[in-house]
Specification:
With about 130 residues, this protein is mainly alpha-helical. It has two domains: about 100 residues, 434 Repressor (Amino-terminal Domain), CATH 1.10.260.40; about 30 residues, no CATH class. Helices cover about 55% and strands about 0% of the residues. It is built from seven helices and no strands. Helix 1 packs across helix 3 and helix 2 packs across helix 3.
Length: about 130
């Protein structure tokens, strides 16, 4: 029988993801929601009419869960589908990379004293009003 190693992290006999390898973000959010609701994988499987192995798959390996599963799991855990998918305010998570120029300016503006923030806000309102 072969063993799991750095070079060969998957054991053909068990075909499982090594526990040291980080699972997909969706799976982490799903597991967190399940635990917060106080359910085991077996209980979730029973309530959703799927196998415990399928719940494990969604938590540890699935990168593209079906929309039906996401909706049903969200309803079971009483969370939004956006919460499970990691969407913030209904939008997909921001792609990695440097912040946009607007985000950089907003961060700098937030550091100004309130009086100066008010002046900048009034200037922006004037510019935006003329552009409309």
């Amino acid at each position: 029988m072969s063993t799991i190693s750095e070079e060969h992290p998957y054991n053909a006999a068990i075909m499982a993801r090594p526990t040291s390898k980080r699972g997909p973000e969706f799976g982490a959010r799903l597991a967190t929601a399940r635990k917060a609701a106080g359910f085991t994988q077996v209980q979730v499987a029973d309530k959703l009419g799927i196998s415990q192995q399928m719940v494990d798959y969604y938590e540890r390996r699935a990168v593209n869960p079906s929309a039906d599963f996401v909706r049903r799991a969200a309803a079971l855990f009483k969370v939004s589908t956006d919460d499970l998918l990691g969407n913030v305010n209904g939008h997909a998570p921001r792609k990695p990379g440097p912040p946009s120029q607007l985000e950089q300016l907003t961060a700098r503006l937030a550091k100004l004293p309130r009086a100066k923030q008010k002046v900048v806000a009034e200037m922006l309102e004037g510019v935006l009003a003329r552009a409309s």
